[in-house]
């Protein structure tokens, strides 16, 4: 995306705003020459990004303050192998992600819900005041998850899948693989209480408890609290979702309006949100 063709496309379309992901730290710098604001949209969850910044960027010598969200040794080894492979290919993943954060124009977008605030450090909202804002041929996940026959979702715990499951009130059987997925799984199981995790051995292999965990979540009385909690989160997300999206749109439109004021030629501007 750093090639001249991308710059030409943006210069031709002249959008009021661009959203980019954590793989493209060059975009905000590139479009700044065109006086176009760029906003980072994080596809990973807030807890996962918090863990990443604490351990790899901000405080690598201190333990993460939320011990229920962690990596097993085999998950550390797997992720380290992935990062080492990227670095061997000349991809500076750590510093690239950092640049993506720092270059975002005033706000950073994360798909979440307000009740994540229950696990944030005391005084967090006061510390980010005036610096940040918290607001939240294929098979359709949505159509499947909303079906009345669905009692649970066996998931790798990618953040998009997590949000979809909770939106429809479906408890999660967590089978995280790599990247942010283990941290998302720990958040759901240990902090939020909307699922159970299928554990692996020290080599990262699944044991024989898969069927047991699925049955517990979907059918047994012991899983009833999980199912109730998932439904509670569904109601919370649906109630807050409309207000949150209105707040998000207003913040993005404010960035667009600020840019238009300092742009000489406004007649061809279009807002691509």
UniProtKB/TrEMBL annotation:
GO terms for molecular function: UDP-glycosyltransferase activity. Coiled coil: none annotated. SUPFAM superfamilies: UDP-Glycosyltransferase/glycogen phosphorylase. Gene3D superfamilies: Glycogen Phosphorylase B. The keyword Transmembrane helix applies. CDD domains: GT1_Gtf-like. Keywords: Membrane, Transferase, Transmembrane, Transmembrane helix. It holds the Pfam family UDPGT. The chain crosses the membrane at residues 22-42. One of its GO terms (biological process) is carbohydrate derivative metabolic process. This is Uncharacterized protein.
